[in-house]
Specification:
By secondary structure, the chain is of the alpha/beta class. The protein is 63% helix and 10% strand. The chain folds into 2 domains: 7-320, ABC transporter transmembrane region fold (Up-down Bundle), CATH 1.20.1560; 338-578, 3-Layer(aba) Sandwich (Rossmann fold). It has helices at residues 3-16, 20-49, 59-108, 111-116, 119-161, 163-172, 174-210, 212-217, 221-247, 249-273, 279-301, 303-320, 377-384, 407-412, 428-432, 441-450, 454-458, 476-490, 506-520, 560-566, 569-578; strands at residues 338-345, 354-361, 366-371, 392-397, 400-401, 414-417, 426-427, 467-468, 494-498, 529-533, 545-550, 553-558. The chain has a 6-stranded mixed beta sheet, sandwiched between helices. It has a 4-stranded antiparallel beta sheet with strand order 2-1-4-5, covered by helices on one side. A two-stranded antiparallel ribbon has the order 7-8. β4 and β5 form a beta hairpin. α7 (174-210) packs across α12 (303-320). The chain starts with a helix and ends in a 5-residue tail after the last helix.
């Protein structure tokens, strides 16, 4: 076992420790069960001795032994059931805790980690890999411990009957352990590879299913099927290798155990010829020889499951150790004054993006950010929300450096509507109250009316109690309005509209834009600071200031009319969208 495997087991034991009492109970049941099984061969041998004489069968004593044997069998059944019950509960509680920590680590992880990971692979870690840990813990803990107790007990009882036969069995049987050890050592890498490829298979399947319409529209079905087939074939290959090599363990050990049984039988016959053993003792020893080998077979048989579980455990436990994004800092009631002081940022060091960005945004200002794709618009929003931290410079909120304010405080001060709006499975009321779960029905309805979505909700079968999700045929515009209703409900001092109208029709765009204007400029209340990222320049003409970005820098700034008269990049973008085409 290498250092990596030992470290994985050490981490897994940390999750098993709180449920150790269940494992102790399982071990106690295993002791009773194993002890009961140890006495069965002795009882059988004594019963046979009652019938070895010619016309001299002691039926009375034999009946007692049969009743005792029946009691032993009943005890074995009961305590094995209790052992499995305790071990399985401990295993699934262990997996539950590991899965919760893994999911918690993902929710607390930096956005950089989520952006850089395959989502299907993450799903595979939390589902399939977690379940495989449970299988390994149950079989490993119960069968290994029961096997150890059985081996020790059997060896002691065999020595009491005939030390030479016991020595021969004890000397030859461990050969099966050596065989299983070397086979398992070579097969571990294949099980690790199998877990990795399974994650890729999940990821590719998720991509294909999620983008089925696009795949069909471009006639990519055959190529997608071929690519999925390649990954599936790779999974088959590494899975076959892992299973093939691990499957050599059982027949190899059974062959050795059969040889051990044969040696014990021959030695027993020789001792019987010399009159040193009776038939009952030989029978007992042969049963013990077989019983001595059986737990070794079970232990080697569980090695395959254990290797799979170890590889799976590493994947989910690696997830639990993802460094969470720091959320230190104070909590401040922000009002909306923002200053960017010489920001530098790049996703990778070799490709600088934002450089020396400076900007003052007074409270109540509506800022529009436009520019070509990849110019840094969404990146700037990510920095404002503290999804990423700048490489240099500072973001100042109300005179406070963003580094001194907790991330949760900053994010609660923003209301955000993205291009891909998110609706989770739940009632309309729960979706709107996502950021304020304790909101009253009156507050939820008022937010829906402010977002101009109340009419649509009222026409649903159960109104605000209608259960919806992304697959219920709700239009993109209606989803966006539900998202805006969420912001109306939380009423933060700053707003972000990031390409929120790019996937909807012009009429719905006007509704979304009007709802957003009501958010930023309420009739009764102070104006809110707003950032609008848009490719459709019709949504930014009323902004207080328009920032034109190019290669991470602000190359133009001003109001709509000023920038048009300037005839720069903004004018080119605007005219490209709205210039009349000569016929």
């Amino acid at each position: 076992m290498n250092k990596r495997e030992k470290y994985t087991i050490t981490r897994l034991m940390k999750y098993l420790k709180p449920h150790a009492w269940l494992m102790v109970a399982a071990f106690l049941c295993a002791i009773v069960s194993a002890a009961s099984q140890l006495f069965a061969p002795v009882v059988i041998g004594e019963a046979i001795n009652c019938a070895t004489g010619v016309h001299d069968v002691d039926f009375k004593t034999m009946t007692v032994y049969v009743i005792v044997l029946a009691g032993i069998i009943a005890a074995v059944l009961v305590f094995q059931w209790l052992m499995n019950l305790c071990a399985q509960r401990a295993a699934f509680l262990t997996v539950r805790d590991a899965r919760l920590d893994g999911f918690s680590a993902m929710t607390d992880a930096p956005l950089k980690f989520i952006d850089g990971a395959a989502h299907g692979d993450l799903t595979s870690r939390l589902s399939v890999d977690a379940d495989q840990i449970a299988d390994g813990v149950v079989q490993g803990a119960t069968q290994i411990f029961t096997g150890v107790v059985t081996i020790i007990g059997t060896l002691v009882l065999m020595i009491r009957i005939n030390g030479w036969i016991a020595l021969a069995v004890a000397a030859l049987t461990p050969l099966s352990l050596l065989v299983s050890y070397f086979i398992a050592r070579g097969s571990h890498k294949y099980f690790a590879e199998q877990s990795r490829v399974r994650g890729e298979l999940f990821q590719r399947g998720e991509e294909i299913i999620k983008n089925h319409a696009l795949l069909t529209a471009y006639g990519y079905s055959d190529r997608a099927e071929a690519e999925f087939g390649e990954t599936n074939a790779e999974y088959k290959t590494c899975g076959f290798k892992a299973t093939f090599y691990s499957s050599l363990v059982n027949p190899s050990t059974r062959l050795i155990n059969s040889l051990v049984y044969a040696v014990a039988a021959i030695m027993g016959a020789l001792f019987a010829i010399d009159g040193k053993m009776n038939v009952g003792d030989i029978t007992t020893l042969l049963l013990f020889a077989n019983q001595f080998a059986r737990p070794l077979n079970e232990i080697t048989g569980v090695i395959t499951e254990f290797q799979t579980s170890l590889a799976a455990a590493k994947r989910i436990l690696d997830l639990t150790e993802v460094e969470p994004q720091d959320d230190g800092g104070k909590s401040v009631a922000l009002s909306g004054d923002i200053r960017l002081d010489g920001l530098d940022f790049s996703y990778t060091p070799e490709r600088p993006l934002i450089q020396n960005l400076k900007l003052d945004v007074p409270r109540g200002t509506m800022v529009a950010i436009v520019g070509r794709t990849g110019c840094g618009k969404t990146t700037l929003i990510n920095l404002l929300m503290r999804f990423y931290d700048p490489d240099a410079g500072a973001i100042i909120f109300d005179g406070n450096n963003a580094d001194d304010i907790s991330r949760s405080c900053v994010r609660k001060s923003f209301g955000m509507v993205l291009q891909d709006s998110w609706i989770f499975k739940g009632t309309v009321r729960e979706n709107i109250a996502y950021g304020k779960p304790d909101a009253t029905d009156e507050e939820v309805i008022a937010a829906a009316k402010a977002a101009d979505i109340d009419g649509f909700i009222s026409r649903l079968p159960d109104g605000y109690d209608t259960v919806i999700d992304d697959g219920d045929g709700i239009s993109q515009g209606q989803k966006q309005l539900i998202n805006i209703a969420r912001i109306f409900l939380t009423d933060p001092p700053m707003m972000i509209l990031d390409e929120a109208t790019s996937n909807i029709d012009t009429r719905t765009e006007l509704r979304v834009q009007a709802a957003f204007d009501r958010l930023l400029r309420p009739e009764n209340g102070e104006k809110k600071t707003g950032f609008v990222v848009a490719h459709r320049l019709s949504t930014v003409v009323n902004a207080d200031v328009i920032l034109v970005m190019d290669s991470g820098k602000i190359v133009e700034r001003g109001r709509h009319r000023e920038l048009l008269e300037k005839g720069g990049i903004y004018a080119e973008l605007y005219n490209a969208q709205f210039a009349k085409t000569a016929v």
